[in-house]
Amino acid sequence: MLSELPQWYKYNNGMYRSLLVIKNIFYMSIKNMWVLNMSSKSSTSLVKVSSVILCLVLLSGCEALQSVDRGLYTAAEAVTERDLVTGQRTLSTAGRGEQIAQGNAAVEQIMAAEKKAGRKVNAALDRKAYERLVKVFDRIHRVSHLANERWRPILIDNNAFNAFTTGGTYIVVNSGLMKDLQDDSELAAVLGHEIAHTVANHVFERQTHQTVALIAGSEAARQGSYQAAFTHESEIEADKIGILYASLAGFDPYAASRIWERQYKKEGSAKGLFFHDHPVNPERAVLTRNVARQVEPYYQKGQQNPQYSALLESNTLWRKKSESVKAGEGGGLSAILGTVLGAYVQHEGTKQEASRQTQQIQMMQALDKRVVVLGEKVIDQHSWQVVWQNRNSVSLKNVVMGVLVKDSGGKVKRYVAHVSGNVVRGSRFTAQFTMPDLSVAQLKQMQVKYYLDDALPYQ
């Protein structure tokens, strides 16, 4: 519509430049609507905004608009951050310096607490494990988007299967995780995932997004299901980035999927117990396997891909965007609209994930009510067999049964047993639980509750 302008506009340089500004805004707005597949209501609102801006241009002239646009750009810079991976703007009120200060302070408090409790860290805890951690970390860090920052991995004495980052330049890894990971490629997948959380600014993005959603009066954002779903989506993104890093550093990209396949056998899914802030184990195994398949062409076993720098900008997972419109020429409004639209889409995606998990929990709990215990049989000191009947109107496949064990102090442990074959409706089936850390005699002194951990219904 604005590509062919009458000759007299070109002589009126102020008006001509103003219309070029609106042209950039209009085209970028239309592009955003198409890419994001927005609802008609949101599209209408965006068109109204563009119309208002056009009126402002015609009434106030080029210089005024440029000044307003520069102000909008400054405002966008204050409340957003350019995603190092995608180039898109994301909500964040903390600059990188503040992120490092806050994140590192949190980890240093943890280290001080470890020291106060008399627990060793790093090489003093386990020299061989720490040297392995540093060696693998250095290779991953070198091919990351934050290779120019000085990072430090921390090994602490904790048996839990976990590692985490707080948005600064530390990665904290539990000794229990190091023992469970079977090779360096699996460790690389975990470290890449944790670096990715900071690269994508997940820690501070979540804080800012929740604050904005609450200020906007979103009831959904107040719910625990929403908060879990928001983190759930961040975990998927961190897996993608981390697996790419591992591949570029010369580690097997399929290692992540092996971790979650093994965790599924060990822990099941707990699909119906609570809202999940991570993808459940079998889903995560599938998702990470699909990512590995996409980045496998970049994998050179044991060697850093010489094209890693270019591949960080453009690869099979994403192509980094650049801001082509400058402040004062439509860049300010573009930055604001891009941020608002991005936050809106993220908000809607989070709501959809929360809804999906709600439906999943309801389905699992409904199925669980009609899976009835018929009997129990002790196998040995640490194992026993349970017989159930499936009284649902549907058959079940990929069945995992679980048991919650609560001791006198209120501490709850969860164990799972995988069921062989499909469970036809009306049929009986068995599963055997094994608990190395508890005896059957001890179990009799505790509260025990069986539940359906995972299953897919079919007719």
TrEMBL record:
GO biological process: proteolysis involved in protein catabolic process
Alphabetized UniProt keyword annotations: Hydrolase, Metal-binding, Metalloprotease, Protease, Zinc
A Pfam family hit: Peptidase_M48
Claim: Protease is one of the keywords in the record: yes
Signal peptide: none
Cofactor(s) this protein cannot do without: Zn(2+)
Domain (Peptidase M48) ranges: 131-285
Gene Ontology annotations for the cellular component aspect, listed alphabetically: membrane
Name of the featured protein: Peptidase family M48
Organism: Neptunomonas antarctica
